[in-house]
Amino acid sequence: MSAEAAPEQAVTVLVVDDQPIMRVALSGCLDAEPDLTVVGQAADGEQAVALAGQLRPDVVVMDIRMPGTDGITATRRIVRAATHPPTRVLLLTTFDGDAYIVDGLRAGASGFLVKDSTPEELAQAVRVIARGQAQLSPSVTRRLLDLHASRLPPAPSGEPDPAIASLTPRELAVVRLAARGLPQHEIATALGLATSSVRTYIGHALAKLGLTDRVQLVVFAYEHQLVHPGWSDGTDGTNGTNGTGANQPLR
Asked: What residue numbers bound the domain in which 90 lies?
């Protein structure tokens, strides 16, 4: 590799998960990125706290549900250690329930991703957190907005937002489902599209709306009342369902 292609300084990462296969998979995904380096692995919260103190990684990718010391407790202890530069924590779990979101963020986590996120999303979340910014997966952002919907600003009055008017009907349908936290393959199933087409529609919508990522898309959709907390309104091309035929809240 040429000196020009080498990153100036790789982001160091500690991976924590009680399942060996998951630890190996996560480490492999992150180590495959030229600007990320996994410096250690931990099987539980206690080991995570100890290794974080020894290795002082930039980011800890932390499973939440583990026997003994869970990920939230471990996060709180790591954050309170107040190392310099600080070690930041990305919580990774199969669950996106309200309690996990709120407790994790209160513990000092800088980000929260569900485990069905893509390797690219995981790597990008680590980069964002390492820069000192917050990172939430779209589904987690949607849950938080559902919890605090009453505090959202009212929809703009008067003429419709010209950026929204520029969206095609298909782009708007994809935006509404993406804003509810559905992954790309579920959006594809709900609308009868290829996953690659969904990715293209999301990219076009982000460009037209002047947004940079799906988290911003969730917030934009709620602020402009393209979606509403809880139940599907049937205006997104899915006939009021969540894409699986069940007329229920999209989770």
From this structure: 11-136
